[in-house]
Design brief:
2 helices, single chain, alpha+beta
Length: about 90
């Protein structure tokens, strides 16, 4: 019996990288979203399975472990609404 092992994924965000993606003529959906390990939706510009990831962007921010892909979009989504928890009074 074979065992399927999922590789850990780590998310990063760089405003410089995002602007490059947004200005690229071949990228019509620069907004990329994943769910982190707490099911919070985060916008990313880089996903890697390498915990020692090195980037050429000096403004990179580590977003933590990612759980799964959420969506790509040509326009930003409202993360505040997407991540809101319904509360009943």
């Amino acid at each position: 019996m074979s065992q399927i092992t999922e590789e850990m994924q780590y998310g990063y965000y760089s405003q410089q990288q995002f602007q490059n993606m947004e200005n690229s003529s071949d990228k019509d959906s620069p907004y990329i979203y994943y769910k982190d390990k707490n099911d919070k939706i985060v916008q990313i510009t880089e996903v890697t399975s390498n915990p020692n990831f090195q980037t050429r962007f000096n403004d990179i921010v580590y977003l933590g472990e990612l759980k799964k892909f959420h969506c790509v979009s040509g326009t930003p989504i409202n993360l505040h609404l997407e991540n809101a928890t319904l509360r009943y009074i």
